[in-house]
Amino acid sequence: MEEIKIKQLSFAPDNPPLPVIVAAKVAGITLPTDTSATSPTLHLPNGLKLHGTHVILRYIGRVSSLSNFYGHNAFEASQVDEWLEYAPILSSGSEFENACTHMDKYMENRTFFVGHSFSIADIAIWSGLAGTGQRWESLRKSKKYLNLVRWFNSVSAEYSDALNEVTATYVGKKGLGKLVASKPKEQQSVNGDISEKGKAGSKPFEVDLPDVEIGKVRLRFAPEPSGYLHIGHSKAALLNQYFAQRYQGQVIVRFDDTNPSKESNEFVENLLKDIETLGIKYETVTYTSDYFPQLMEMAEKLIREGKAYVDDTPREQMQKERMDGIESKCRSNSVEENLKLWNEMVAGSVRGLQCCVRGKLDMQDPNKSLRDPVYYRCNPVPHHRIGSKYKLYPTYDFACPFVDSIEGITHALRSSEYHDRNDQYYRIQMDMGLRKVHIYEFSRLNMVYTLLSKRKLLWFVQNGKVDGWDDPRFPTVQGIVRRGLKIEALIQFILEQGASKNLNLMEWDKLWSINKRIIDPVCPRHTAVIEERRVLLTLTNGPDESFCRIIPRHKKYEGAGEKATTYTKRIWIEHADADCISVDEEITLMDWGNAIVKEIIKDQDGNITKLVGVLHLEGSVKTTKLKLTWLPETKELINLTLVEFDYLITKKKLEEGEDFLDVLNPCTKKEIAALGDSNMSNLKRGEILQLERKGYFRCDVPFIRASKPVILFAIPDEQDHTVSPTSRIAY
């Protein structure tokens, strides 16, 4: 890579080349500036000059050390050029919103403007939008350009330090122009901060990792393959990615596969799937089991050095002795005796199975994690990757500090539940003679009415209380996505929590509220009527022959497409709606017009069975109290099963020592039969829709044949919609 040496960037004071300044800042290129020129000019040390914003921007894209900054290959570089040529349209007042509409549609299924990497194309567009000042800020708040705003906020968050500094200096409320007068740093208004109120945008964390060197940070996300990724793990994964991007470093994925009794290839495969779903960009995948030979050598080395010993004390007695600070009778064994028992453990003999290896640390330390922790245990169960080669396995406490150091990890991010074991981690690394790895703590994400222990979640799976690890009642990534959560909502929710060390118990309502803001502007609208006790309304002046109209699936979003609505003389409405109608009352039939109910027919028990009325299409919808959904009486209606879920437990938070089996929710799933409009035969699995006046749903099983219902899962939102008067939606 060509060494970057720039003498100066000169430009007119009222027309700074924002994309160039942003690109240099993001790439870490020092860029002295001079505001005495009439147009952007880059002065190189050898006397050569480059003129024009996009010429200079391309130069920075080529010489920067950031990967794929000017595209991954020649084709992507050409795409970058296209967007650089397009970007100036954003400064054209009349074309600005048309350009936003075009880019919003383009970004619907994209993370970056070109390929799969951040490039100068993103910088050119970001700068063009930010450079308009208040005009773009107003549109960001209007929810008009959902995909474009999502991308803009994502870029703002990932490169917050650089972008905030540039915009604070060069962009005012009226847009790009003369240098903005500097304010003290603590007073500057930062574009797009994620505040406690949840505004999406720039740096979400008011913390820094210790002893950081830009470009040399290496982090790891290290799940144990003993379950699927849940919302708590997601926080750890996203924090690792955030800090890696912030410090231009790397993240690796490492499977801590040291307990073959709990682990399987199924969990490995699904964890990788979930990591991809979260959008985590990792350098490589490793396994603690890759280091089993070196870990055994290290354990034997510590035994020889008198820093570890083999103990055959029964487990319960050992636990009591550790609590009471009582040394094991085996602590004073000779090195020879320890090595003899170690070899028995390696062989997996009857004698070896009675033993474990413990570190010889300090049995009197007030921090009980330092009271001779266990390093190795025997386990005859075959390992999911390497079979029956080993009869003993390292504990997490022993393996983690070793592998972190060996793999070049600079900072180990751990939730604060491990706080008491931090001293143990450092002591073990010191005894091993390995490079110290910095620990950074963050608070564990806890949710109300939710169990995050994989052991407890496994109980629900094994006892048939749920349908699997992807059950919509589970807090796993696959479960909540299947429930209808968009990954963008999860990421925004977690980033808003930040890297605080303060313990907190979060409400699901906030997450589902964010989700609603994402899905509502774009999801299509459909109609359903609860099948039980539905009521037929005959419109005496209705059409003798049914007819169809093509109407939008979403009145404010063309991208949702169109649907066909059939109009007939006889229509279905819900019994609950029929109960609210009085004789001669004028009602509004949604997507049709007004009607007046002339007759209400009831059975001998007083239940409404039929209604008779007349269309009154000239009536005003503003004057009616009831706006009702309805379906035509045709054979084309789709059978639906609407499924609502509730929490698995009935208590917000379990107290320490409290058994979750005592607070199980006896009813966590409710199915309701309904009929849906004929367009719902085209729903795809995973598609999110809104049933008018019922709420949001995700299609879990699409239309196969008329005898099999389409299955829709209810998606919670902060208004807690219900699909029937007696049910409630919760998580």
From TrEMBL:
<dbReference type="GO" id="GO:0006424">
    <property type="term" value="P:glutamyl-tRNA aminoacylation"/>
</dbReference>
<feature type="domain" description="tRNA synthetases class I (E and Q) anti-codon binding">
    <location>
        <begin position="627"/>
        <end position="700"/>
    </location>
</feature>
<dbReference type="GO" id="GO:0005524">
    <property type="term" value="F:ATP binding"/>
</dbReference>
<dbReference type="InterPro" id="IPR011035">
    <property type="entry name" value="Ribosomal_bL25/Gln-tRNA_synth"/>
</dbReference>
<comment type="similarity">
    <text>Belongs to the class-I aminoacyl-tRNA synthetase family. Glutamate--tRNA ligase type 2 subfamily.</text>
</comment>
<dbReference type="GO" id="GO:0005829">
    <property type="term" value="C:cytosol"/>
</dbReference>
<dbReference type="GO" id="GO:0048608">
    <property type="term" value="P:reproductive structure development"/>
</dbReference>
<dbReference type="InterPro" id="IPR000924">
    <property type="entry name" value="Glu/Gln-tRNA-synth"/>
</dbReference>
<dbReference type="GO" id="GO:0004818">
    <property type="term" value="F:glutamate-tRNA ligase activity"/>
</dbReference>
<feature type="domain" description="Glutamyl/glutaminyl-tRNA synthetase class Ib catalytic">
    <location>
        <begin position="216"/>
        <end position="519"/>
    </location>
</feature>
<keyword id="KW-0067">ATP-binding</keyword>
<protein>
    <recommendedName>
        <fullName>glutamate--tRNA ligase</fullName>
        <ecNumber>6.1.1.17</ecNumber>
    </recommendedName>
</protein>
<dbReference type="Pfam" id="PF03950">
    <property type="entry name" value="tRNA-synt_1c_C"/>
</dbReference>
<keyword id="KW-0648">Protein biosynthesis</keyword>
<dbReference type="InterPro" id="IPR020056">
    <property type="entry name" value="Rbsml_bL25/Gln-tRNA_synth_N"/>
</dbReference>
<keyword id="KW-0963">Cytoplasm</keyword>
<dbReference type="InterPro" id="IPR049437">
    <property type="entry name" value="tRNA-synt_1c_C2"/>
</dbReference>
<dbReference type="InterPro" id="IPR014729">
    <property type="entry name" value="Rossmann-like_a/b/a_fold"/>
</dbReference>
<dbReference type="Pfam" id="PF20974">
    <property type="entry name" value="tRNA-synt_1c_C2"/>
</dbReference>
<dbReference type="InterPro" id="IPR001412">
    <property type="entry name" value="aa-tRNA-synth_I_CS"/>
</dbReference>
<dbReference type="Pfam" id="PF00749">
    <property type="entry name" value="tRNA-synt_1c"/>
</dbReference>
<dbReference type="GO" id="GO:0017102">
    <property type="term" value="C:methionyl glutamyl tRNA synthetase complex"/>
</dbReference>
<dbReference type="InterPro" id="IPR020058">
    <property type="entry name" value="Glu/Gln-tRNA-synth_Ib_cat-dom"/>
</dbReference>
<dbReference type="InterPro" id="IPR036282">
    <property type="entry name" value="Glutathione-S-Trfase_C_sf"/>
</dbReference>
<dbReference type="InterPro" id="IPR004526">
    <property type="entry name" value="Glu-tRNA-synth_arc/euk"/>
</dbReference>
<keyword id="KW-0436">Ligase</keyword>
<dbReference type="GO" id="GO:0010494">
    <property type="term" value="C:cytoplasmic stress granule"/>
</dbReference>
<feature type="domain" description="Glutamyl/glutaminyl-tRNA synthetase class Ib anti-codon binding">
    <location>
        <begin position="523"/>
        <end position="612"/>
    </location>
</feature>
<dbReference type="InterPro" id="IPR050132">
    <property type="entry name" value="Gln/Glu-tRNA_Ligase"/>
</dbReference>
<dbReference type="InterPro" id="IPR020059">
    <property type="entry name" value="Glu/Gln-tRNA-synth_Ib_codon-bd"/>
</dbReference>
<dbReference type="GO" id="GO:0009791">
    <property type="term" value="P:post-embryonic development"/>
</dbReference>
<keyword id="KW-0547">Nucleotide-binding</keyword>
<keyword id="KW-0030">Aminoacyl-tRNA synthetase</keyword>
